[in-house]
């Protein structure tokens, strides 16, 4: 998570202190807020009920206090896609006001628009809810893209296609924002599903899912399927975007086994990446490079984001293995699209990408693989004759982020009860009958360090360091300003003020 304000103060203080294919085309990048045409192949009948049982690995499959749950009620409760985000319908307040809320596993605040904004169609009007209570605290949250400010309060929340029951939730009423709501979106708030450590203004603000687990008595587990994989943003129907299952897992949403990796720190969903492969080529980087700062799983991030050194190595490996020569640098850095004549899909030109994660048996690892259809992503056609694509990977200054580009290939289980994350092949990550993702393992982890995440700096510590440095900078600024405004004058041996005794000649330029 970047902190531009701190960076700006540093720059200012420091400057003052120092004195101061053949058919390949490329066009300027533009994301079109189109709509996809998609229908789920999940059979919703017959409706079945799952008793409070275990899958053999201690993963509870129940999601309500009575011990029975209709998980299929939660299937297809998400809409959207990776470009605009995946969102779920909620009812807030008394009487209930329906809003769409973006599902974000990379933050911990539940926030909803509480004032008009040109990019949203409606908002939660706190004055119309008889159960809304403001606690008078202000809150501000900054994301990789955009930020908002608002007022903390509490109110009743229910989810039509979620666990049965109404819960009392901490709500941030968004009163102003910058770059947070975007054109073409169909959501009016954000649902942070991460841990209390990330909650703002502090961890005393209980996150949404913590409240649901406590008040409804469901297991501390949720699972997520995102179904926008390989879809063009050009059709007219907003698709069923996937499923958020609270309280357990729904077996019809994945194929094969669930592979688990430990959650190594409970703030973000931080995992340990052991290595990356492009095609069958190991990047051969020190595994600490992959976990520089942190490596997290974040549904609110569109792309697969990689630390700069890792990103450069991936681009170089793709360039060497791709059948396309002299690829425009603008495609890799996200400023240009790559276009082919209509119907000339480019995926055969690109290799698979694989991420190795440490298994719960820490001496082993498993591999999740995405095909080019997931990271060479179709965008709305430009003039009717071209199909254009963007690169679904980007460089990051804030660690490795397994975002929607990768998550769309898998059914991801956030097993907070056992501090582990599970990956299984998603039933909707299929195109033309062929799977767009793969899982393999177990593999030996003997060739990597025992702790690849060693040396990562956690965000609270970074805040402390940042504020300390800002305080030091502020002290330096005050001293410098005092020296500039009230220059220390000394008399020479004859008692006269000379040019040598002032700061005019020796002031720092």
What is the strand and helix layout of this fold?
Layout: H1 4-17, E1 25-28, E2 50-51, E3 68-69, E4 78-81, E5 85-92, E6 97-104, E7 110-113, E8 133-142, E9 147-158, E10 167-178, E11 189-192, H2 208-216, E12 221-226, E13 240-246, E14 254-262, E15 265-266, E16 269-270, E17 273-278, E18 281-282, H3 287-290, E19 295-297, E20 304-307, H4 308-321, H5 329-332, E21 336-341, E22 353-358, E23 364-370, H6 372-375, E24 376-379, E25 386-391, E26 393-396, E27 400-402, H7 404-407, E28 410-415, E29 420-426, E30 430-431, E31 434-435, E32 437-444, H8 459-485
Parallel strand pairs: 6-11, 7-10, 19-27, 20-26
Antiparallel strand pairs: 1-21, 2-3, 4-5, 4-13, 5-6, 5-9, 7-11, 8-9, 9-10, 12-13, 12-28, 14-29, 15-16, 17-18, 17-22, 21-25, 22-23, 23-32, 24-25, 28-29, 30-31
Helix pairs in contact: 1-8
Mean pLDDT: 80
Low-pLDDT stretches are 1-68, 232-237, 488-509
| Alpha-beta content class | alpha+beta
Rg over CA atoms: 26 Å
Share of residues in helices: 10-25%
């Amino acid at each position: 998570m970047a902190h531009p304000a701190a960076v700006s103060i540093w720059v200012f203080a420091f400057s003052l202190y120092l004195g101061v294919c053949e058919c390949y085309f490329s066009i300027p990048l533009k994301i079109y807020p189109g709509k996809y045409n998609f229908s789920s192949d999940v059979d919703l009948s017959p409706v079945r009920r799952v008793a409070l049982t275990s899958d053999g690995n201690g993963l509870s499959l129940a999601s309500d206090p009575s011990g029975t749950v209709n998980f299929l009620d939660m299937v297809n409760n998400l809409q959207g896609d990776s470009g605009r985000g995946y969102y779920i319908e909620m009812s807030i307040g008394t009487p209930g006001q329906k809003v769409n809320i973006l599902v974000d596993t990379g933050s911990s605040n539940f926030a909803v628009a509480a004032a008009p904004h040109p990019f949203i169609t409606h908002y939660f009007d706190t004055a119309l809810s008889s159960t809304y209570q403001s606690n008078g605290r202000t809150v501000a949250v900054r994301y990789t893209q955009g930020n908002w400010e608002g007022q903390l309060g509490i109110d009743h929340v229910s989810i039509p296609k979620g666990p049965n029951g109404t819960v009392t939730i901490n709500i941030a009423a968004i009163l102003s924002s910058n770059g947070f709501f975007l054109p073409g979106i169909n959501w009016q708030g954000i649902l942070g599903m991460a841990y209390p450590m990330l909650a703002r203004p502090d961890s005393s603000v209980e996150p949404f899912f913590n409240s649901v687990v406590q008040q409804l008595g469901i297991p501390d587990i949720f699972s997520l399927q995102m179904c926008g994989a390989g879809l063009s943003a050009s059709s007219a129907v907003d698709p069923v975007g996937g499923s958020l299952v609270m309280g357990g897992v729904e077996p019809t949403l994945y194929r094969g086994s669930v592979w688990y990796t430990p959650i190594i720190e409970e703030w973000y969903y931080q995992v340990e990446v052991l290595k990356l492969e492009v095609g069958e080529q190991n990047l051969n980087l020190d595994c600490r490079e992959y976990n520089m700062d942190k490596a997290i799983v974040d549904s609110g991030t569109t792309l697969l984001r990689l630390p700069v050194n890792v990103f450069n190595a991936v681009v170089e490996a793709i360039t060497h293995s791709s059948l396309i020569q002299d690829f425009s640098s603008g495609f890799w850095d996200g400023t240009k699209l790559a276009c082919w004549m209509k119907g000339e899909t480019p995926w055969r030109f690109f290799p698979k990408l694989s991420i190795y994660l440490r298994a719960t048996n820490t001496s082993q690892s498993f591999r999740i693989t995405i095909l080019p259809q997931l990271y060479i992503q179709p965008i709305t056609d430009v003039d009717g004759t071209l199909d254009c694509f963007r690169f679904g990977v980007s460089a990051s200054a804030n660690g490795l982020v397994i975002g929607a580009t990768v998550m769309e290939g898998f059914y991801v289980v956030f097993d907070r009860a056992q501090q582990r994350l599970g990956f299984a092949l998603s039933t909707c990550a299929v195109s033309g009958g062929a799977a767009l993702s793969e899982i393999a393992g177990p593999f030996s982890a003997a060739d990597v360090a025992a702790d690849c995440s060693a040396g990562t700096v956690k965000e609270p510590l970074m805040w402390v360091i940042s504020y300390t440095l800002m305080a030091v900078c502020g002290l330096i600024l005050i001293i410098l300003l005092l020296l500039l405004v009230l220059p220390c004058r000394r008399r020479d041996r004859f008692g006269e003020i000379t040019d040598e005794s002032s700061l005019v000649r020796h002031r720092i330029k």
